[in-house]
Every structure is written in structure tokens, then in C-alpha cells.
């Protein structure tokens, strides 16, 4: 989840107001402006994956929260490659017992701070 201003870890803290008037929803593309964070979020799905892009405002306080660090999940932050890799085992049922949802996050800015435990990383960003 893209966040600006201060670090926000809980779902309620990082929730953002948005308007359906400021979104584009198509089977192959979704875009929405998250007003509280001042971030545009875009998602392009495939059959088994999705690519996200976050466009942040000019700020020194832009963060990305990766909420995937429970129930046997795995997160590895690789600052030298500006990358976060891992998998989440969280699901709502209907999947095999050994289900894993793998992810790779690649940033266009180096990390100013990285932290696991709550599985978060923050790229230095003026704008993306």
C-alpha cells in the first residue's frame, strides 16, 4: 500500500478516501487516485499475476507498506537491488494447503529505510 506523510502500519491507518469518479476500471487495467496519500495507483492484471505502479507526489515522506509477514510468509529486502521479494501464505480458502502468493517489488529509487517485522520498506522518493 502506498503511503505518504508518516509511517502507517495498520489497515485503518493507511486506508485512503477515493472517488469512483477518479478511477478507471477495465478488465485489463485499474487506476485510482488515493486522496489521503496523494498517490495514483495503477494495476495491470494477467492470468496469474499483476503489475502495480504507484505515482507519488514530490515529497521526502513516501512509503510502501508490504503486508505479507504472517502465517509462514516470507519477505526479503534487498537494498542493493532496490528490490523486495517473498511470498504470502494468506488466503481466504479454496487453495491447496501449500499455497504461496509470490511477489517481487522493484523500485526506481534507492531505499532510505527498510524494516522487516511488519515487512515495510521506504524508497527515497521525490516523485515516481
Walkthrough of the structure:
This protein has 128 residues and is mainly beta. 3% of the residues lie in helices and 44% in strands. It is built from one helix and eleven strands. It has one helix at 11-14, and strands at 2-4, 23-26, 29-34, 39-45, 50-55, 62-65, 74-78, 83-88, 101-106, 111-115, 120-123. A four-stranded antiparallel β-sheet has the order 1-6-11-10, with no helix packed on it. It has a four-stranded antiparallel β-sheet with strand order 2-3-4-5, with no helix packed on it. The protein has a three-stranded antiparallel β-sheet with strand order 7-8-9, with no helix packed on it. The longest helix has 4 residues, at 11-14. The protein is globular, with a radius of gyration of 15 Å. The protein starts with a strand and ends in a 5-residue tail after the last strand.
**Order of strands, widest sheet:** 1-6-11-10
Output mean pLDDT.
82
Strand count = 11
Secondary-structure-based class equals mainly beta
Radius of gyration: 15 Å
Estimated helix fraction: under 10%
**Overall shape:** globular
Task: Give the helices and strands, then pairings.
Elements: E1 2-4, H1 11-14, E2 23-26, E3 29-34, E4 39-45, E5 50-55, E6 62-65, E7 74-78, E8 83-88, E9 101-106, E10 111-115, E11 120-123
Keywords:
single chain; 128 residues; mainly beta; four-stranded antiparallel sheet; 11 strands; globular
Q: Could you provide a short overview of the structure?
A:
This protein is mainly beta and 128 residues long. It is built from one helix and eleven strands, in the order E-H-E-E-E-E-E-E-E-E-E-E. It is globular.
Amino acid at each position: 500500500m502506498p503511503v505518504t506523510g508518516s509511517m502507517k502500519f495498520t489497515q485503518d491507518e493507511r486506508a485512503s478516501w477515493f472517488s469512483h469518479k477518479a478511477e478507471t476500471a477495465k478488465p485489463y487495467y485499474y487506476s485510482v487516485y488515493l486522496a489521503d496519500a496523494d498517490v495514483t495507483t495503477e494495476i495491470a492484471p494477467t492470468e496469474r499475476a499483476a503489475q502495480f505502479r504507484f505515482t507519488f507526489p514530490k515529497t521526502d515522506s513516501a512509503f510502501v507498506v508490504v503486508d505479507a509477514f504472517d502465517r509462514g510468509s516470507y519477505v526479503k529486502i534487498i537494498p542493493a537491488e532496490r528490490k523486495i521479494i517473498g511470498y504470502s501464505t494468506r488466503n481466504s480458502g479454496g487453495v491447496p494447503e501449500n499455497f504461496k502468493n509470490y511477489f517481487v517489488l522493484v523500485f526506481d529509487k534507492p531505499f532510505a529505510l527498510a524494516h522487516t517485522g511488519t515487512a515495510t520498506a521506504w524508497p527515497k522518493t521525490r516523485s515516481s
